[in-house]
Amino acid sequence: MSALVSAAGAPILTVQALRKSFGNIEVLRGVNLSVRAGEVTFLIGPSGGGKSTLMRCINFLDTPSAGEIVFAGKRLCHEDGNLFHAAPERLLRAARSEMPMVFQNFNLFSHRTVLKNVIEGPVMVQGRPRAQAIEEAEQILRRFGLGDKFDHYPDQLSGGQKQRVAIARALAMQPRMILFDEPTSALDPELIAGVLDTIRVLAEEGLTLIVVSHEMKFARRLADIIHFIADGVILESGPPDRIFDAPESSRLTGFIRSILH
Fold this sequence. Notes:
By secondary structure, the protein is α/β, with parallel strands linked by helices. 37% of the residues lie in helices and 27% in strands. The chain has a six-stranded mixed sheet, sandwiched between helices. A five-stranded antiparallel sheet has the order 2-1-4-5-6. The longest helix is centred in the C-terminal third of the chain and has 16 residues, at 189-204.
């Protein structure tokens, strides 16, 4: 768990009554969520329960249908009467750059080298000097054991290396928070440990993280708080010991039993 979380700390992210529908299918049905700076939050639950959709709505890769999101003091969307309002695209882009997402399938640019993948956001989105971005990217890549991969292309890397490049790309944005959407689900079992260790280091350094994962042992060891999501709502929330050792609902009890055995 992060040592920097303070019980009195103000939330960096608040989500209230968030809803998302795709046509007639309502995927999120009124989600409330609060994340404090330095907190490591895990979202667990059955497939199709709304975890990834919630992450994409927080990051505005998908536009919510209703509700309110406030990130770092800026209101990204809200409701006024029966009308839903999203912030201007300029503000959404700025917020997205401060909370990049690491995807389960890496989402690297296949036609660009590792180094160019990592500097893309800082240079093109944030407007930072290219030389500075290159120096910082090289430092991050060396730190993640990728110092000899600067000029490699994604198809020359293992799955674990691709995911570490994706994490380096997120970290190069100097984010206030990173979103991880099942970051190990596309990896072979022998490659998972390296990626989890990279995430653990970020958590120990006090970076705010939201992680969707089926790695329950990892969640129990790293999380400050776990939210169990099913059927488009958060059914239970609590610290790891409470969630795993004393679940209050039969739904959570059944989920834990099915995934741990």
